[in-house]
Amino acid sequence: MPARVLAVANQKGGVGKTTTAVNLAACLAALGQRVLLLDLDPQANATSGLGLEKIPGTSAYAALLGQEPLAPRIRPTAFDRLEIIPSELDLCGADVELPRLDRHLHRLALALEPLRADASRELILVDCPPSLGILTLNAFAAADHLLVPLQCEYYALEGISMLTRLLDQIRTGGANPRLSLLGVVMTMFDSRTRLSQQVVAEVRAHFKELVFDTVIPRTTRLAEAPSHGQPIIAYDPYSAGAAAYEILAQEVLTRLAAGSTPPGEG
Questions:
Q1: How far apart are alpha carbons 127 and 47 in whole angstroms?
Q2: Is 84 buried (19+), middle (13-18) or exposed (0-12) by CB count in 10 A?
Q3: Which of 115, 139, 175, 193 is most buried by a 10 A CB count?
Q4: What's the confidence (pLDDT) of residue 61?
């Protein structure tokens, strides 16, 4: 079975997108999955979050341009069964260069084909930039599933409605008919505030079963872990943040095993 591609995306910054991509990838690997994390964000926070330096010429940029295969860019991490394709600032050039190329929305899908067919990995997670630019659109065109981290704050639903409209356009427009919304994960939840509880209730009322049961708490330890180049399960394995991402990883595997999104999509 080819590796499945899961895009982690939200066009709004500061919602826990990269935190979710890094920690979910690490927890899936800890559960025995062979995982490749593709850092497609020029800010390269997922790269540094797993302890790698931002080195010029190490990103997927040349592969997106069709100048080389993607496989040589894969790097090991300090964690078993978890590999990464790092990012760095040259990916900023994609917004200018990719639209000039043939099949500009499918450059990532084409580059990923050999990696999807490689039996040495089961899941490819893509950490998208915090925008709806050409890199995110390429991730959507290449992915089987979309996972959306959503911050527990008032403007949450505005952002996700834009994402779901884009998801429908990608599918119905023919760019990627198989793309499905795997789920929405609520992040930065503060149980002490009524606002967090209201936002979660509102999102669950709107998206129903598409919202993961697991809610990611706002914690200092989760915020500290990237500066140490570690996912939370390595930095503080007994913390509330580590427990939340471990349970989320199990939920993700359950949904992937079901073969489709849960009832309630659309």
A1: 10
A2: buried
A3: 139
A4: 96
Report the CATH superfamily, name and number, of domain 4-258: P-loop containing nucleotide triphosphate hydrolases (3.40.50.300)
> How far is the C-alpha of 218 from the C-alpha of 95, rounded, in Å?
33
| Residues of the chain where predicted confidence (pLDDT) is lower than 70 | 260-266
Q: What is the pLDDT of residue 161?
A: 81
Domain segments of the chain as ranges: 4-258
Q: Give the side-chain half-sphere CA count within 13 A for 44.
A: 22
pLDDT at 12: 87
| Angstrom distance (rounded) from CA 245 to CA 251 | 10
pLDDT attached to residue 16: 92
Sheet with 123-127: list strands edge to edge: 75-76, 82-85, 35-39, 123-127, 4-8, 145-151, 180-189, 211-217
Position 220 scores a pLDDT of: 94
- Give the pLDDT confidence score for residue 192 in this predicted structure: 85
What pLDDT is recorded for position 265?
44
User: Tokens 């593709």, residue?
Assistant: 38
Q: Which residues does 231 contact at the CB level (< 8 Å), separation at least 6?
A: 22, 23, 25, 26, 27, 49, 50, 79, 225, 245
Q: How far apart are CA 124 and CA 224, in angstroms?
A: 25
The DSSP H or E segment spanning 233 is helix 232-235
